[in-house]
Amino acid sequence: MAAASHSGAAELGNIAVQQGDLDTAIARYERAQEIADQADDEAITWRILARNNQAYHRLLRGEVDAAATIISEAMVLAEERGMLSLQPYLLSTAGEVALAQNDLEMASARFQQGLALATQLNIPERVAGITANVGLVALRRGETTCAVHYLSSALAQADTLGARHLAALIRIWLAPLLPPAEARAILAEAQEIAEIGGRRRLLAAIKEVRARMVEEVMAHGRSD
């Protein structure tokens, strides 16, 4: 019963995320965590995943410190209970938290560990997602060529898997690194995916990237 209740709360959270309502999503993930915690070890997987979901979406809302605390709790639980199969997801989130904290060394370490585990455990979606994360670290380090390589590789994997949300997200990250014509084409592909799925946060991100690209073109024109 606890697992079913948690699953229902988590699914409602996922729906809220798709609609772009982070506040509702986080509240539902908190509720999922409460239900799972009451069941203790009978719902250990849900206890861990509810924390991971909550940490990730708090990070999206800009609550970096809260996200760091919650993902640390999830990682301790997973380690204590030997839940190796969940580690790639947790390491991915922990790496994104470290990236938000500008700790590139920690972010890289988390992502590399997560990528190795995802490969070992044959979790293709996480291999693609973390490969993209490695690309974001390279970008932050100013290694644009490496960033394009990792992001392009991750995009090919996501497209092959049919992981459409991830594929759209990677396109949004990759577009500013490409020549203008390629960037426009890849953003159009991302927008099509986002519109079909009704993913408002992706649509907002696409709009933001397009505006930033226009600003850069105008700034370049003024400097010529």
Distance between the termini: 66 Å
Number of E-state strands: 0
Q: State which percent range the strand residues make up.
A: under 5%
Number of helices: 11
- The helix/strand order is HHHHHHHHHHH
Structural class: mainly alpha
Percent range for helical residues?
over 70%
Question: What is the topological layout?
Answer:
Blueprint: H1 2-18, H2 22-39, H3 44-60, H4 64-81, H5 87-100, H6 104-120, H7 124-140, H8 144-161, H9 164-174, H10 180-197, H11 200-223
Helix pairs in contact: 1-2, 2-3, 3-4, 3-5, 4-5, 5-6, 5-7, 6-7, 7-8, 8-9, 9-10, 9-11, 10-11
Quick description:
This protein is an all-alpha fold and 224 residues long. Helices cover 84% and strands 0% of the residues.
Describe this structure in words.
The chain is mostly helical. The protein has a domain at 163-224. 84% of the residues lie in helices and 0% in strands. The chain contains eleven helices and no strands. It has helices spanning 2-18, 22-39, 44-60, 64-81, 87-100, 104-120, 124-140, 144-161, 164-174, 180-197, 200-223. The mean pLDDT is 90.
